[in-house]
Design goal:
By secondary structure, the protein is an alpha/beta fold. It folds into 3 domains: 175 residues, 3-Layer(bba) Sandwich (FAD/NAD(P)-binding domain), CATH 3.50.50; 81 residues, 2-Layer Sandwich (D-Amino Acid Oxidase, Chain A, domain 2); 77 residues, no CATH class. Helices cover 37% and strands 26% of the residues. It has 11 helices and 18 strands. Bound molecules: flavin-adenine dinucleotide (FAD). The site of flavin-adenine dinucleotide has 37 residues, from helix 1, strand 2, strand 3, strand 9 and strand 12.
């Protein structure tokens, strides 16, 4: 039986980056990826910050658009736009990105096997089905990079998933028109428990999708959105997916760690996982290599869990608090919130400061801007109605205003 220092189950972005970093650190690495070919369409809108590419260690070959504006649509028909003066987001071709990441893992020395499905793990031995038949290999460290419905998580008992969003997305072709704008549709009727989006892709294609809370079927909501907003759209492809929630559980144990969606390394507000997953995958690769090299299957992996908390913990907590407030709003309140946010000073500041990966960093600028205090007080009223002063203070990082100001 072949023996590896590290076996990575899942050759998505998180698995490929983990494998590359572990191999570059000197570990012998096997990647098992069940897809026989890496191709579109994938369950991803492909919207990332420009820095995500360098975090993942990818070139710009996958970039199909550069974006600098977003329009939010309230349920009642109102809207507001933020238009930055420089590119703030990229739209990528996921398959080109993933092919490059896997090629880089292989260049670093990892043995990448496509069409190979891991079927079990016991006593350090991973079993798998591959085009060549059933196989088995042993390892010092097993990495679960097998996505939101991670089997490694259940084999190892490392983390129990406790929440998820169901997502659906189509790629549609539209008649010639605007191409450089992201649209976000909010409100319970549109997408209960999350939001809907439209993102320009290649040529006249757009990725239109939405996510909804547990127990809701996303399909009728997407049909309604397409009929209302994109009646001329010709559907080219359709995908479904799951976005994991509830991060913060145990993501490492004796000789095993989880990374990426398997560990819910996802931004709570947007559901984006490529940036957080990339950051944590680099830490995962280093930890897995260190555990294999030292024979200590516990300490480096525990250190990995702490490293993830340091890398994404504060932003995740901030996002989760804002999301819980956001999800409590009914459609009437959404109309009100978008009307409050439609303040030229606020929109100018957001346009200047917005950072998709670190929304929290914008808060001190907003709070410290005297011209925005009136807007903030109006927002505070909405937030405290749902979440109380404690959550509102958490989000804004300031004490609640005295009642006489409200
Ligand atoms: C509709 C939708 C839109 C999204 N849009 C965005 C976006 O715009 N920007 C963004 O940053 N994020 C987005 N995300 C989230 C993003 O797609 C994920 O966070 C990201 O794919 C996570 O990468 P990963 O490598 O952890 O997992 P995955 O990409 O899910 O990769 C897991 C891999 O493991 C393989 N696998 C699973 N089980 C096994 C097994 N037993 N054996 C072998 N292989 C196995 C799978 O085939 C897969 O290739 C979106 C998600 C959805 C659902």
């Amino acid at each position: 039986m072949q023996r590896f220092d590290v076996i990575v189950v899942g050759g998505g972005p998180a698995g490929a980056v983990t494998a590359r970093v572990a191999a570059a650190a000197g570990a012998s690495v096997l990647v098992l990826e069940r897809r026989a070919r890496i191709e579109e369409p994938s369950a991803c809108a492909g919207l990332i910050s420009p820095r995500t590419l360098s975090v993942l260690g990818a070139s710009e070959a996958c970039v199909i658009r550069r974006l600098r504006s977003v329009t939010f649509h309230a349920p009642g028909g109102g809207s507001l736009s933020v238009r930055a003066t420089s590119d703030r987001a990229l739209v990528v071709d996921r398959s080109v990105l993933e092919q490059e990441l896997l090629a880089r893992a292989a260049e670093a020395g990892a043995d990448v096997r496509l069409g190979a499905t891991a079927t079990g793990w016991r006593d350090g031995i991973v079993r798998f089905d591959s085009p060549g038949g059933e196989g088995a290999a042993s390892c010092a460290v097993l990495v679960g990079a097998d996505g939101p419905e991670s089997q490694v998580a259940s084999w190892s008992g490392v983390r129990v998933a406790s929440g998820e969003l169901r997502a659906i997305q189509v790629e549609i072709e539209l008649p010639p028109g605007e191409v450089d704008n992201v649209h976000v549709f909010v409100g319970r009727r549109v997408a209960p428990g999350f939001f809907a989006w439209s993102i320009p892709a290649q040529d006249r294609r757009f990725r239109v999708g939405l996510a909804v809370g547990t127990g809701v079927d996303p399909a009728p909501h997407l049909e309604a959105l397409l009929a209302a907003r994109f009646p001329e759209g010709r559907i080219v492809s359709r995908v479904k997916g799951v976005i994991p929630l509830a991060p913060g559980g145990r993501i490492a144990g004796d000789g095993v760690l989880l990374v990426g969606d398997a560990a819910a390394h996802v931004k709570p507000l947007s559901g984006g996982g490529l940036y957080f997953g990339g950051l944590c995958a680099r830490a995962a690769g280093r930890a897995a290599a260190a555990a294999a090299a030292t024979g200590d299957r516990l300490a480096p992996l525990r250190h990995y869990q702490d490293a993830c908390r340091q890398l994404i913990g504060a932003e995740t907590r901030f996002g989760a608090t804002v999301r819980s407030i956001r999800d409590a709003l009914d459609d009437e309140e959404w109309n009100n919130v978008l009307a409050i946010l439609d303040d030229p000073d606020l929109l100018a500041l957001v346009a200047e400061r917005i950072d998709l990966d670190h929304l929290r960093h914008m808060v001190p600028h907003v709070v410290g801007h005297p011209r925005l205090w009136r807007t903030l007080l109006r927002l505070w009223e909405v937030v405290r109605a749902h979440a109380g002063d404690a959550s509102a203070s958490d989000v804004l990082g300031v004490a609640p205003p005295h009642d006489e100001f409200l």
